[in-house]
Amino acid sequence: MFTRVVEITTKAGKSQEVANTISTKILPVLRKQVGFMDEEVLTSDMESNRILALSFWQKKEDAERYQRDEYSKIREMLSPFLESEPMVKTYNVHTSTPHKIATGKAA
Q: In what order do the strands lie in the sheet with 2-9?
């Protein structure tokens, strides 16, 4: 399993709008992508303009296809709310209880 972590800094007072946009407009797009498994959105309780969006994919290639084919449209959807360019990082999933992956057993 593979994950994309998108670190988002919103304009002041816009974090809830971004989180809601992810839930209502972006999640339906993600669900249509080959290999997409799950999305988690974390809003900071210490920095009100910070959000982490974690998407989980079956394979790295699935996440790369999404990045190449769809991410620019998603980024454009969020642009009115953003203070700066989102930072995208990728990781192999080592352990995940919700996804039933044991330590070191991710594909």
A: 36-43, 50-57, 2-9, 87-92
Per the confidence metrics, is the pTM higher than 0.85? yes
Q: In one letter, which amino acid is 95?
A: T
pLDDT tens for 50-102 read 999 999 999 999 999 999 999 999 999 999 999 999 999 999 998 877 656 55
Quick check: helix, strand or coil at residue 64?
helix
- Reading the block at residue 46, the tokens are 């210490």
Query: Looking at the chain, which runs of residues are DSSP E strands?
Result: 2-9, 36-43, 50-57, 87-92
- Please report the domains of the chain, with CATH numbers, ordered by start residue: 2-92 (3.30.70.100)
Average pLDDT, the chain: 91
| Residue 79, C-beta contacts closer than 8 angstroms, at least 6 positions apart | none
Three-state DSSP state, 32: coil
